[in-house]
Design a protein that fits this description.
The complex is a heterodimer of chains A (469) and B (254). Helix content of chain A is 23%, strand content 35%. Chain A is of the alpha/beta class. Chain A has one domain. The longest helix of chain A is centred in the N-terminal third of the chain and has 25 residues. Chain A is globular, with a radius of gyration of 22 Å. In chain B, helix 5 runs parallel beside helix 6. Chain B starts with a strand and ends with a helix. The chains are: A alpha/beta (469), B alpha/beta (254). At the A-B interface, helix 7 and helix 8 of A face helix 2, strand 7 and helix 3 of B.
Chain lengths: 469, 254
């Protein structure tokens, strides 16, 4: 009974907060977005928040997170600043167009929206809602299902800023776009960033999304991304999470694909107190391909949950899911992968695989692979394994002179390599390879800079005094 | 070099080796033969340090030290090499990375500087030539997708890289065609020196046409029941193991 009371009060607190800060939240957005928010807060009122009685949340209890009291920043406290002052990139051949979110707000040096020579628009979603209301209206909230158990409705009600990308027809964005999401606060805070990626026909984009916390304080990020791939579009989407033990992240990504488009998404969780990645991948038109890769390396009492649904709604599409995890100490992981093949999705090829290695008796992995097939001419497979490091292989390595620790590391590294090898950008693959190796040697702390900058000679100062920027 | 005395070994309470004795001196090649299931591979595993087995009685002394006190990696660094009967596939670990790590671990243990990348590559080319292995094994993951013959040749190549004092080759000839067996035998012969020793564990006499042993021992029911020179191998080839069974039976009766 007590839990229910607490939950109601959390919901009520959110609803009150929404009503009180409505003017700040909506800013200069188009009315339609405000309308979407009203609808979203109604969904929160009606459906509440998911609890462990909901299938996709059975092993991931939100209750303690939701009961905590957080600060909200409804006004942008950050000033334009140069991210290079905090991070300096020495990966000479990984040339990215880098953008930063600090505590959920877009930070920029010159302008909140940049238009590249090829017509690509990159910048703040908040600004984009002002400048390109029609474009935002056409896509925002159209694929993120608010009614499902989750926190998408909450994000929709509260979001204020985030990344906006628009890639015009036939444009191949030549540099990867890197989003660095930094949390830095002295107080327990909650952020709800929102990202919108729109790709027109035959466009190509690589997006690298790094999630970082620069403090050990409590934070709760509830982010939602929507990405739209028009005909023949190609999106390579990387998510790298390296966050502190006191940080909680619910990260929901929704992808929609039109004919003959190609999506590759990779989620790499290297550290994080509580992480839930939700992916909904819709193959809406024929001949699409969607690949979802994941790697999670967790220890102490970290918890990571990957919930995926690949929805085949059209014929002749292919999809693959490969998620691998190594769990140490008392870490827990959940894999909840679903392949949905709708009646019209004939000739579907869909594969799913989840493999876990438990290094201790106390680590726990829960895998729930699901297939739901309504078409009759399809090839689908799924599998999940939970095991220990291969003792035969351990002995083989030790018999050649490697000590137990080195042998374990080499085997863990090899296990992770199957996912890392799939990264198509060579310098990024090398960086991640290096990072995974460091992580497995226990040398990667959350205080390392963003993964693309982790070789900086001078130590980075993490106390960002926003007022001085 | 190696002295095994009154060794009794069991697994899950089942005794496999009982009162096993063996002396191997520097420069010697010993062949241990015997029917399946008599404890040949167990012996190899125990010398290399596999912890599946319990040593209930006896001792193994290697270069004057108590071998049973050493972890498997220390035994390796001290110069013991086990050529596996079933080499393990390790996807994701390249041969080069694996061997370089192994070699440098050993060098560190011996107080030597690690080999640089260039030095390592040079050594690798040199050793490949020495043992007559021309394939591109080294660019691939450890044993992954190797044929049976490639796996065994790879064991010999690793042996050539690590330059052990005592090599134990566990059924390295099994499943090999005659050409692959020649490569294996050639590798062993080239690495043979007055300082190092080899224990060949084999089921058939065939390998001994190419590697001439100094001693042949017949292992039966967990102990050596007959020892002799290389001619013992020919006798076994002629008479089969049934002959040994009868002799062992007689001995037990006495």
């Amino acid at each position: 009974m007590q839990n229910i009371t607490e939950n109601i009060s959390t919901e009520q607190r959110m609803i009150d907060l929404f009503q009180e800060n409505m003017d700040l939240i909506k800013g200069n957005e188009p009315e339609s977005v405000t309308g979407l928010r009203q609808k979203a807060i109604e969904v929160v009122k009606t459906n509440g928040f998911p609890d462990i009685t909901s299938e996709n949340w059975r092993f991931t209890d939100l209750d303690p997170l939701l009961r905590a009291v957080y600060d909200f920043d409804f006004t942008n406290q950050s000033r334009p600043f140069d991210i290079e002052k905090i991070f300096s990139c020495d990966v000479y051949d990984l040339d990215t167009f880098s953008v930063t979110l600090l505590n959920g707000w877009f930070v920029y040096q010159n302008a909140p929206l940049t238009t590249l020579k090829d017509g690509t628009i990159i910048g703040s979603l908040s600004k984009a809602m002002e400048v390109y209301p029609e474009l935002v209206n056409k896509y925002l909230g159209t694929i993120a299902p608010m009614e499902q158990p989750g926190l998408t409705a909450l994000n929709t009600a509260f979001f204020q800023d985030g990344l906006f990308i628009y890639v015009p027809e036939y444009v191949k964005v030549d540099k990867p776009i890197q989003l660095i999401n930094i949390v830095n606060s002295e107080k327990p805070v909650m952020f709800q960033p929102r990202h919108l990626i729109i790709q027109e026909n035959s466009s190509e984009l690589t997006l690298v999304h790094c999630d970082h916390s620069l403090t050990h304080n409590i934070s709760f990020t509830n982010s939602v991304s929507e990405a739209f791939l028009a005909k023949n579009a190609v999106l390579d989407f990387y998510k790298i999470q390296n966050k502190g033990h006191n940080s909680a992240v619910i990260n929901s990504s929704f992808f929609s694909q039109k004919q003959h488009s190609k999506l590759t998404s990779s989620a790499l969780t290297l550290n994080g107190g509580f992480t839930k990645n939700i992916v909904y991948s819709l193959l809406e038109e024929p001949e699409c391909n969607a690949t979802h890769n994941g790697l999670y390396l967790v220890d102490s009492n970290q918890h990571v949950d990957n919930q995926l649904e690949v929805d085949h709604a059209a014929p002749n599409c292919t999809s693959e899911q490969l998620y691998k995890g190594i769990l140490d100490d008392e870490a827990t992981a959940v894999f909840n992968g679903k392949i949905m093949v709708r009646r019209e999705a004939q000739k579907t090829l869909a594969y799913q695989n989840n493999k876990n290695i438990l290094l201790t008796d106390d680590a726990r992995a829960n895998a729930q692979p699901q297939l739901e097939i309504y078409a009759d001419d399809v090839k689908c497979s799924h599998g999940a394994t939970v095991g220990q490091l291969d003792q035969e292989a351990m002995f083989y390595l030790r018999s050649r002179g490697l000590n137990e620790r080195a042998a374990r590391q080499l085997l863990m590294y090899a296990f992770a390599a199957e996912v890392v090898r799939r990264i198509s950008i060579e310098p990024l693959k090398e960086r991640i390879d290096h990072l995974v190796e460091k992580r497995l040697k226990g040398e990667l702390s959350i205080c390392d800079q963003c993964m693309l900058h982790c070789n900086t000679k001078e130590p980075t100062v993490f106390n960002i005094d926003v007022s001085k920027l | 070099m190696l002295s095994i005395k009154h060794l009794k070994v069991s697994i899950n309470g089942k005794t496999i080796l009982k009162d096993f004795n063996l002396e191997v001196k520097a420069g010697e090649v010993h062949a241990i033969m015997g029917p399946n299931g008599t404890g040949k591979s167990t012996l190899a595993s125990v010398i290399a340090g596999r912890d599946l087995f319990d040593v209930d009685e006896g001792s193994i002394t290697y270069m004057g030290h108590d071998l049973l006190e050493m972890d498997p990696e220390i035994r390796a660094r001290e110069g013991i090499f086990l050529g596996f009967q079933y080499p393990v596939e390790i996807p994701g670990v390249s041969m080069a990375n694996f061997l370089r790590t192994a070699l440098n671990e050993k060098r560190k243990y011996l107080g030597l500087e690690p080999l640089s990348g260039a030095e390592f590559l040079k050594l690798m080319e040199n050793r490949k030539k020495l043992v007559d292995i021309h394939s591109k094994l080294t660019n691939r993951s450890v044993n992954e997708g190797f044929s049976g013959g490639e796996k065994k040749k790879n064991e010999i190549f690793q042996m050539a890289m690590l330059e052990p004092k005592l090599a134990i080759l566990d059924e390295t000839d099994s499943g090999l065609d005659i050409d692959a067996m020649k490569v294996v035998a050639n590798g062993v012969n080239k690495l043979r020196s007055p300082e190092n020793s080899t224990i060949l564990i084999t089921h058939y006499q065939r390998l001994l046409d190419y590697i001439i042993p100094d001693y042949v021992h017949v292992l039966y029911d967990g102990r050596i029941v007959k020892s002799g020179g290389k001619e013992l191998a020919f006798e076994l080839e002629d008479k089969g193991y049934e002959w040994i069974r009868k002799e062992a039976g007689v001995q037990e009766a006495i």
